[in-house]
Specification:
GO terms for molecular function: metal ion binding; molybdopterin molybdotransferase activity. Its EC number is 2.10.1.1. This protein has 342 residues and is of the alpha+beta class. It contains eleven helices and 19 strands. Helix 2 runs parallel beside helix 4.
């Protein structure tokens, strides 16, 4: 690549897109990379402020921005996503299916630390829908050393930076607890909320039982659902430290392994997650899920429906970003709730 005066560029090959910006009308390339500059192009180039331009000269040690962008795309792209057309050294990744976005954060940091290239992504561990943008990549200079792009490949060996875990249809059991509901003293208002949240991901409740606060009864119902082949059991209510709230004990007595009872998230501090036989989630939901717009359940549910096994340390890390501000107009997931550092 070499710099030359625009008036002297006739016959030269343009090595980058030339963008024309007319506010409110257009922002697009008036000439594309590879265009052979003609005499009639000179006034147009001057009109967009290009008194000097870069034209191509062979250099085996360098890559053009668009060629380098293709390298970035390949190290980013997992299954169920595609790239946009390369333009001015930029490629965007677009989801091909609904699911949970996973990011190899170490690789993402490693590439962005190399300099002269960048990858900007939406938050990982959150839902994406088919057609939505996942990430944008760009090469900063017009040309970049081939050696630097080889280093980008090396630091991302072993798999792509981005992947999408698609949702898996699950048979879900719902256990509503509380003697006041069991004895019909009050109406069950918890179950409709859970069914509505499941419907957001195309899921339905396959079995539903209402139990009193008798922990032995709750345990028996959970076990019956698991024996009937439920892939996940959700228990609502009875999660506080009150003497009558026995759901945590009931879940423990099923033999399920408790991952966490309590999480640094508000609303949702009394949340419980366990796994039965190492793979089927048993969830205990605190009462806030019934009345708060968004809670820890919204952070965890999509990951469980995608078949992901969540570790205890991932709950500990939710403290930063774990406070929902209960905004008058909820914009979740386009807000800071559940989006901590790493």
């Amino acid at each position: 690549m070499k710099l030359c005066k625009t008036e002297e560029a006739v016959g030269q090959i343009l090595c980058h897109d030339i963008t024309q910006i007319i506010p409110g009308v257009v922002k697009d390339a008036v000439f594309r990379k590879g265009h052979v500059i003609k005499e009639e192009d000179i006034p147009v180039l001057l009109s967009v402020g290009k008194e000097h331009i870069y034209v191509w000269e062979n250099d085996d040690t360098m890559l053009h921005e668009n060629e380098a962008a293709e390298v970035l795309y390949e190290i980013c792209r997992g299954e169920a996503m595609h790239g946009s057309e390369v333009k001015e050294g930029k490629i965007e990744l677009i989801a091909d299916c609904d699911g949970v976005l996973k990011i190899d954060r170490e690789k993402l940091l490693a590439v962005n630390s190399l300099g002269q290239m960048m990858i900007a992504a939406r938050h990982g561990d959150f839902p994406v829908k088919a057609g939505e943008k996942i990430a944008g990549t760009r090469i900063i200079p017009l040309v970049i050393e081939k050696e630097k792009m080889e280093r980008a490949k090396q630091v991302t060996e072993g798999g792509p930076i981005f992947s999408i875990l698609p949702y898996v249809q699950k048979k879900i059991g719902l256990v509503t607890t509380g003697s006041e509901v069991y004895k019909r003293r009050i109406q069950d208002k918890f179950s409709p909320v859970i069914k509505e949240k499941l419907a957001e991901y195309g899921m339905e409740v396959a079995m539903h039982e209402i139990c009193s606060d008798d922990h032995e009864q709750i345990t028996a119902v959970i076990r019956a659902m698991l024996d009937a082949g439920m892939d996940m059991v959700i228990c609502t209510g009875g999660m506080s430290v009150d003497p009558d709230d026995r759901t945590p004990l009931a879940i423990k007595n099923t033999g399920a392994e408790i991952v966490t009872y309590g999480a640094p998230v508000l609303p949702g501090a009394m949340f419980l997650l366990a796994y039965y036989e190492g793979e089927r989630p048993v969830v205990g939901l605190p009462g806030c899920v019934m009345y708060a717009k968004r809670t820890i359940f919204d952070l965890v549910l999509p990951r469980l429906l995608a078949g992901e096994k969540i570790k205890a340390e991932e709950f500990y890390a939710l403290g930063e970003g774990g406070l929902c501000l209960s905004c008058p107009v909820c914009t979740f997931p386009n807000c800071g709730f559940g989006k901590g550092g790493y």
